[in-house]
Each structure stands twice: as C-alpha cells, then as structure tokens.
Design a protein that fits this description.
By secondary structure, the protein is mainly alpha-helical. The chain has one domain (11-141). 54% of the residues lie in helices and 7% in strands. It contains 6 helices and 2 strands. It has a two-stranded antiparallel sheet. The longest helix has 27 residues, at 11-37. The protein is elongated and about 55 Å long.
C-alpha cells in the first residue's frame, strides 16, 4: 500500500475547496469589518481602510490558513474533498516554512491574471506556482478502511 502512486487533486476540487474556505473567512470577518467601517467599507476603493481591516483582511486569513495547514495539512475546504498538502519529494508532512512559502506563493500565482493557479490544469502533478515555490503537492487523502483505535489490544 505504501508504494501506491498518489492521486493528485485537480483544479475543480481545489477551486471548490478554495471558494468554501473564502466563504468561511468572509463569514468570520465581515461582521466586525462592517461594525468597524460601516456599509461604506464594501464600496471603498482603498486597499486597506485601517488597522482593523489590515488585521481581519490580511493577517487573520494568513494565520488561519497556515495554522490549519500546520495542524491538519489542509483547510476545511480541502477536508471536504478529502485532500491534504504533502511535501512533493517525500510525500510527508511539509515544514512550517514550506507552508509559509506556499501561502506567499498565492500572491505570486495570482498577480499575472491567475496564471499560476491555471497552471494546475496543465501540470502533471497538478501543482500551481504556489506549490512549486513551496515544494508541495495536494493529494487525495488515503483513509484507512477501519479505525485501528477501535481495536482493543
């Protein structure tokens, strides 16, 4: 079983997972942003409207995502599609620095018209630029057929 080839997760499940995670972050951050800045927050042209906006729109999502990755190798969205992030060379859990580079790589992948994310469609291991930068891949999580903890021994 150890020698089985990993099943790399393609673009559609990853997009769905990302949209779900974005919705969760929005549901958590929108109410305090609305309280802090009022309805005008949604129509402003400012990239960052103040310290609360910076914390809730930039720092909180980064921390939440990276901490989820560290704890579970996934996010709630990736958990919904039974996916985990692994080291591309070893298949083991990535290091914290790989996770940080992976998150920063999102910006690299997004800047040129999201080409770095579209790359997932054509890459043989379904790696986006953020994955390549961090040395990670997203794979279908193989779950054991039985829960070994239920056996007494």
């Amino acid at each position: 079983m150890q020698n089985e080839k990993p099943t790399y997760l393609g673009s559609w499940p990853r997009l769905g997972a990302s949209l779900f995670d974005s919705l969760l972050i929005f549901l958590v951050t929108a109410p305090p942003l609305l309280m802090a800045y009022g309805k005008g927050y949604w129509s402003s042209d400012e990239v960052i409207q103040g310290p609360v906006d910076f914390l809730l729109s930039w720092i909180f999502p980064a921390l939440a995502v990276v901490l989820f990755w560290i704890k579970t190798q996934s996010t709630p969205g990736k958990q919904m599609v039974s996916a985990i992030i692994v080291d591309a060379r070893t298949g083991s859990k990535p290091s914290t620095s790989q996770y940080i580079w992976r998150y920063l790589g999102y910006f690299v992948a997004a800047i040129p018209f999201f080409v770095g994310f579209l790359w997932i469609i054509f890459d043989k291991r379904k790696q986006g630029w953020h994955d390549k930068l961090a040395g990670t891949v997203v794979v279908k999580q193989v779950k054991p057929l039985v829960d070994e903890s239920s056996f007494e021994g």
